[in-house]
Design a protein that fits this description.
single chain, 2 strands, 3 helices, alpha+beta
């Protein structure tokens, strides 16, 4: 997932957090994850894609980013 920043030419930011940290536990609770997951936000902070736990694949996340960027291209 961390390679997405380079692949998309700085159009996305990838942020990871430890699932056992206080911040990670709070995020897991907020989004209904048992332990971890993935959330993609649009430029306005709205959730565009979410998968919990081990239910997301890298190709699925990649396609979600392609779709998100098509709907909300970054300003030039």
């Amino acid at each position: 997932m961390s390679g997405f920043e380079a692949e998309f030419g700085g159009q996305v930011r990838v942020r990871t957090m430890q699932c056992d940290s206080p911040e990670g536990k709070a995020a897991a609770q907020r989004y209904g994850f048992v332990s971890h997951g993935m959330v993609i936000f649009d430029p306005y902070g709205q959730v565009m894609f979410m998968r919990r736990d081990h239910l997301v694949t890298a190709p699925e996340a990649h396609q979600a980013l392609v779709t998100a960027l098509a709907k909300h291209p970054p300003p030039r």
